[in-house]
Amino acid sequence: MSKTYKEFEKIFVEITNFCGLHCSFCTPKKEAKKIMPLELFNKISQEISPYTKLCSLHILGDPLSINNLKDYLDSAKDLKLDITTSGFFLNPQNIALLLEYPNVHQINISLTSILYQKQPMLLESYLQKVLELCQKHQAKQSEKFINLRLWNLNSNFKAPKCNATIYETLQKHFNLSSISPLKTRLSYKIHLIGAPFFEWVDTENTIKHTRGFCYGASKQLGILCDGRVVPCCFDTKGEITLGDIKTQNFREILESKRRIDLINGFKNNARIESLCQACKYPNSLKSKDLNQKNIKKESKK
Q1: Is 167:174 a contact under the CB 8 Å cutoff?
Q2: CA-based nearest residue to 247, from 47, 29, 17, 16
Q3: Residue limits of the 4Fe4S-binding SPASM domain (predicted)?
Q4: pLDDT tens by residue, 40-62
C-alpha cells in the first residue's frame, strides 16, 4: 500500500541550474544552462505533493532567472514553496509574484553572493532591490518569511569586515539599535540569518568518512533539472542517481534498491556511497547546533 503521509521534510527541485553569477565560494562546476521543461515540472509537482511538507525550488540555479516563473508557481499550487535566490533577479514583476502567490511560504536571499563576485558589483543598488521586497512585504503585512542570509561567518561565528556596510544599511533601514551577526529580527517575519560557510562535497579529497548518519534520501531528496532524483541538494551532478522521474513514477523511485540501501546504511551509521564519504555536512550539523546555542545566548544578553 502506497504511503500518503508527508514523509519528507523537504524536496529540492532544480527548475534551472542557471544563476548568472560567479561566486568565489561556489565550487561545483556548472553544466550548460538548463531549464526544467514546464511539462516535466507539472509531473513532478503532482507526484511529490502527497509526500513532502515543503518544496524548495533550488539546488544550484536561481528560480527568479526564469522568465515564465509564474507558470511554475501556478503548476506548484498544491506545494508549500521555499524560494532561494541570490536577489540579483529581483524586479517589480518577481517581487509581486513572490508576495502574491499563496503557495510561496519562505523567501531566502543569499546576501553573501554580492560580496564574493569575481567582478565587483555595486552593493548599494543590489541592496535597494532587496529592501524594496522587504518594504512591500511590510506594507502588505505579509505572513511569508523572508530570510536574508549572510553565511560567511568564521568558525567562531564572527563576521568579516566586508559585512559591515550590509549591517549598517539594514540597521538604518529597519531603525534598529543593533545588529547581531547570528540572527536579528529586522521586522515582522523578516530576519537576518548568519552562519559559517558550508563546504561543498570534494570527491577528490583522499580523506573518506565511512561512518556517519544523514537524513539524505529519507527526509530530503533532490530533483535535478533534467529529472534525475538524488538523495540531497549536495549531489549537484547526479552521482547518486536514485531514478529518473521523466521515465519513472515517484513511488517507483522511492522503492529503488539504491535508495533503500542508502537509508539502511545511514541507520547503521554507515556511509556506503563515495559522495557521502566525502561529504562534511554531518559535521556541519554539529556546527549548526552550536550556532543555535550561540543565538540563544545572544538573545539573553
Answers
A1: no
A2: 47
A3: 214-280
A4: 999 999 999 999 999 999 999 99
